[in-house]
Amino acid sequence: MAEQKQNLAAVDPVWRRVCDEAVQAIANEPLLGGLIHSSVLHHASFERALAYRFSLKLASGEMSEQILREIADEAFAADTTLGRAARADIMAVLERDPACSRFLQPLLFFKGFQAVQAYRIAHWLWHQGRRDLAYFVQMRVSEVLGVDIHPAAKLGRGIMIDHAHSIVIGETAVVGDNVSMLHSVTLGGTGKEDGDRHPKIGDGVLIGAGAKVLGNIKVGYCSRIAAGSVVLQDIPPCKTVAGIPARVVGEAGCDQPSIMMNQVFDG
Q1: What region holds the Serine acetyltransferase N-terminal domain (predicted)?
Q2: 113, 138, 154, 212: which sits with the fewest CB atoms below 10 Å from its CB?
């Protein structure tokens, strides 16, 4: 097992770094040794560690840890894009969150990262036709982590949800690559309409805390939505919007708002 882990780490720099950080963390805080061994060092790959955390966090009297672990292992084995997306997500958290200095932190402690990885498994189940099980995962993520992402929603790679409390993403929402959002963001509908009724968020968008984006509208790539805004109409690319209802108040201010994480408007 140790040799297999070493071989895998040699071709997987993210996993190698997670393992190195895990060893250092145990040296710094021996009381966390059991947690870190069971969550990281006991596993042969990043995917296995993700599956373990998924099962541990979401297990309950209704669904055992063992069953959830088998579901997650099956998903990662069947769809290699899940692991690649998880690596992009963890890199995004390290790059954009000033409170994050190690890959180990999102894996063990950050519910935004953990919720997105659980969503990815639920999304896989949804497209396998196992929709009741996907709904179960959605329910448990909402109960345990306070993040409610419909399993049919489409999320790209490099997603960073900071703090992640009270996030809601609806069934027909689409979120592009390299999007960042803060707590209490809603990507929702505007009423009881059915069909395609949720926002489409372009690549590189930054969504501030408490922002509500409602209806089947488009948010152009590399735009910024100010904290507390209510967006009810399309947003052009590379703009900053603010207010209730939100309106364009200026340019985005940089080429990659979701990476820069600058939420100050100086215009």
Answers
A1: 14-118
A2: 154
- 173 to each of 80, 113, 214, how far by Cα in Å? 23, 19, 10
Which residue type is seen at 222? C
Classify strands 239-242 and 224-225 as parallel, antiparallel or unpaired. Answer: parallel
pLDDT digits (tens, 9 = 90+) for 34-55: 999 999 999 999 999 999 999 9
Q: What is the pLDDT of residues 192-210, one digit of tens each?
A: 888 999 999 999 999 999 9
Model confidence, pTM: 0.94
Measured between alpha carbons, how far is 84 from 81 in angstroms, rounded to an integer? 5
What structural domains does the chain harbor? Answer: 11-145 (1.10.3130.10), 153-266 (2.160.10.10)
C-alpha distances (whole Å) from 43 to each of 3, 14, 22, 95, 101 are 12, 14, 12, 25, 22
Nearest CA to 227 out of 254, 246, 248 is that of 246
Longest dimension (CA), the chain: 58
Query: Both tokens of residue 250?
Result: 């200026």
DSSP labels for 86-136? HHHHHHHHHHH-TT--STHHHHHH-HHHHHHHHHHHHHHHHHTT-HHHHHH
Angle between helices 2-10 and 13-28 (to 10 degrees): 120
146-175 confidence digits (pLDDT tens): 999 999 999 999 999 999 999 999 999 999
Question: In whole angstroms, how far apart are CA 37 and each of 12, 22, 56, 101, 209?
Answer: 19, 8, 14, 20, 35
CB-hemisphere CA count at 13 Å for 71?
27
